[in-house]
Amino acid sequence: MMQANEAVASQSEQALEQLVEAIDQLGRRQQRVSLGDMQQEIGERSFGPFLFLPAIVELSPAGGIPGVPTLLGIIVSIFAVQMLLGRRSFWMPAFLSRRTLDGDKLHAALRKVKPVVRYMDRVVRPRWQWLTRKPFIQLVALSSIAAAASVPPLEVLPFASSLPFSAIALLGLGVITRDGVLTVAGMVAAVSALVLVAWVLLG
């Protein structure tokens, strides 16, 4: 049993590293990388990566560009709503699928986060997997939507949008690796982001 669990954990970790590497290779091969290209590379049934990847991009230096956090929040919301509705595969509107990123900048951003991903590979493993399945996956979706909704008000504060995107990264990573502990951490971080928004708006 222990060997089986270790094998599953190894597969999850490999999947995470392969995910980042696959998108990184797109950035190295193409001058411009569209969201449609990423969708084709990842597959239409992978909700977790489309929570995790926008969050990682926002947490990189690219997230400091005005307007980028809000755009990424919209992308997260589109996928999270489809998760909430229980869709088996996700749909991306044409205006989003045609949006492109500079390949060199995408490669540079992912190169910076690769050490973080390698660290995650050592600590994440399938735990409390029931939290990453229905009906609890709907809580993950709701938490992602709440975190994404908190992004626009927080753009007025330098780096404040990193909190909701940290929540989204944890939620996406939890779904990818079937780690319910990470999804709980992501939900707590999403609630913290909403509290921060309330403080910004009411303070």
From TrEMBL:
Pfam families: ExoD
Cross-referenced InterPro entries: ExoD
The entry's keywords: Membrane, Transmembrane, Transmembrane helix
Transmembrane segments: 67-85, 135-151, 157-176, 181-202
PANTHER family: EXOPOLYSACCHARIDE SYNTHESIS PROTEIN (PTHR41795:SF1)
Protein's name in the database: Exopolysaccharide biosynthesis protein
Originating organism: Pigmentiphaga aceris
